[in-house]
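Appendix C: a fully annotated inverse folding record. The material below is reproduced so that readers can follow the format used throughout the book. The structure is listed first as tokens, followed by the designed sequence.
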């Protein structure tokens, strides 16, 4: 064993001697580099023999060498500074942690103020805001902060418990004793209680009577006047699409029309004022707050959820919907509403499911009810965004370019309109007033004409919407050709504006002549008026 110790001693001694020699060599090298007396003796040895050019070269050499050493020292200094930046002291870390907690508290207070404003908007007459907030499950800032801190401490101490499913596609279930959706849970309690009474619906009425009664109600009870043609187009739209777009100049009644309709059916419309900052779906559906462990519920989400419990028709108004990009915040809804099977129209709210989540929520998803319709208002000015074709293709636009003249209307009471009855009237109209074979053949020829002269086509979606809209429009008191004219102008001619009007100006007169020959000179007035406006926009004259 002694032999091994001698071996180990000599082995390690040799290694450390080598390290020592390296360190000594580096030290000697550094000393040699900065051996100023040697450089002075060397310079005195050769200075008498240097020519003027040699003196210049020697001076330049010294300058370059000193600059090189200065650069190396500077780079070393900068490297040390960069490394020191990555080092965070414990005290600084604690300060940052306290700052994060403070910011989260400020966010909670801001959310409370936001919920308070929403509650003030929807509070009933005579109901205190504080009582309304309590019913919605919104806590004051101090109580919310204390509850959040207590919950945060519990989460840090015990962690979040989840029960993982056996299948990777299954939704995780969260164990919690608090309500993650206080507003939606309050909806469950209300409709389960004796306070809610199922209304009696007026099911002995036709679509034409609905249009006439609504127009008279708006005039006699609200002082709002609309052309009967606009009312017919509105109700016909609801039979063909879930999204109606009312566009035109300001002050023509774009927002008041769906508001008045909500008053008429005794189920007030929800007005969502779109903001320029809206960028994604959270503006409509809300979001899950990881700090409070609760979902920040919006009135849009609550309205969709409420519609599960009643048969009434309900309207949601997206006021000034193009003040932000519609395809950003409403894209998911557009896709869901396009699904052919209504039972598949679900949207995901959260990725987990808790036992005390709302009754109608399944695996963190909520179904989009059929009795909800969406009305977007658009101001066409420089302060708004252009609406994308994908939005227009899935909606039906109606132009409100001027105010209707006041008229004397009989006093008309509101009604309760059941969606089931409304849907039954739409189905009956589509079966009874389907577009005639003669006009379908004309539309096919018109489609071929558009392809040949403008490289545009109806498309399956537009043709399907037309086949559903026209029968509903007839049931509302209109004619077949007027319904076709409206859809052709709003769904096809609207696309002309993106073709370059200067290039198609000469073809517009030919299209007007074609419409006269195929459908009659007295028909297609909306389309001809639109074509005349397009020609004026292109710089041409219009008769």
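Designed amino acids, in order:
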């Amino acid at each position: 064993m002694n032999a091994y110790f001698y071996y180990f001693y000599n082995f390690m001694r040799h290694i450390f001697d080598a390290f020592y020699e390296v360190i000594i060599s580096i030290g000697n090298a550094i000393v040699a580099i900065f051996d100023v007396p040697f450089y002075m003796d060397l310079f005195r040895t050769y200075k008498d023999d240097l020519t003027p050019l040699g003196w210049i070269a020697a001076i330049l050499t010294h300058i370059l060498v000193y600059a090189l050493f200065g650069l190396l020292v500077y780079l070393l200094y900068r490297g040390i500074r960069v490394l020191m930046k990555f080092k965070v002291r414990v005290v600084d870390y604690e300060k940052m942690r306290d700052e994060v907690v403070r910011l989260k508290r400020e966010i909670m207070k801001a959310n409370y103020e936001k919920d308070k404003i929403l509650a003030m908007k929807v509070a009933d007459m005579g109901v205190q805001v504080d009582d309304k907030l309590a019913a919605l499950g919104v806590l004051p800032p101090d109580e919310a902060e204390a509850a959040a801190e207590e919950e945060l401490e519990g989460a840090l101490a015990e962690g979040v418990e989840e029960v993982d499913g056996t299948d990777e596609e299954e939704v995780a279930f969260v164990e919690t004793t608090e309500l993650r959706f206080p507003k939606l849970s309050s909806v469950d309690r209300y409709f389960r209680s004796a306070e809610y009474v199922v209304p009696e619906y007026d099911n002995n009425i036709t679509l034409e009577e609905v249009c006439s009664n609504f127009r008279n109600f708006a005039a006699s009870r609200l002082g709002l006047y609309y052309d009967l043609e606009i009312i017919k187009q509105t109700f016909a739209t609801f039979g063909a699409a879930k999204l109606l777009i009312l566009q035109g100049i300001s002050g023509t009644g774009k927002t008041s029309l769906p508001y008045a309709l909500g008053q008429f059916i005794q189920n007030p419309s929800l007005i969502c004022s779109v903001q320029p900052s809206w960028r994604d779906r959270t503006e409509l559906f809300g979001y899950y707050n990881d700090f409070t462990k609760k979902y920040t519920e919006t009135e849009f989400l609550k309205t969709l959820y409420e519609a599960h419990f009643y048969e009434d028709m309900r309207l949601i108004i997206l006021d000034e919907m193009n003040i932000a990009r519609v395809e950003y915040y409403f894209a998911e809804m557009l896709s869901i509403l396009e699904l052919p099977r209504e039972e598949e129209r679900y949207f995901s709210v959260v990725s987990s499911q808790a036992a005390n989540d709302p009754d109608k929520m399944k695996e963190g998803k909520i179904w989009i009810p059929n009795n909800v319709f969406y009305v977007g208002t658009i101001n066409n000015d420089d302060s708004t965004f252009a609406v994308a074709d994908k939005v227009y293709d899935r909606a039906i636009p109606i132009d409100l370019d001027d105010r209707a003249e006041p008229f004397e209307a009989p006093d008309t009471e509101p009604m309760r309109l059941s969606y089931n009855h409304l849907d039954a009237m739409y189905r009956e109209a589509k079966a009874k007033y389907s577009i005639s074979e003669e006009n379908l053949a004309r539309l096919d020829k018109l489609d071929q004409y558009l392809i040949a002269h403008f490289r545009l086509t109806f498309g399956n979606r537009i043709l399907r919407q037309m086949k559903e809209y026209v029968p509903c429009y007839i049931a509302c008191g209109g004619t077949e050709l007027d319904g076709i004219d409206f859809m052709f102008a709003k769904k096809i001619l609207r696309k002309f504006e993106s073709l370059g009007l200067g290039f198609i100006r000469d073809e517009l007169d030919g299209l007007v002549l074609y419409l006269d020959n195929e459908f009659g000179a007295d028909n297609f007035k909306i389309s001809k008026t639109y074509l005349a406006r397009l020609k004026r926009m292109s710089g041409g004259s219009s008769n």
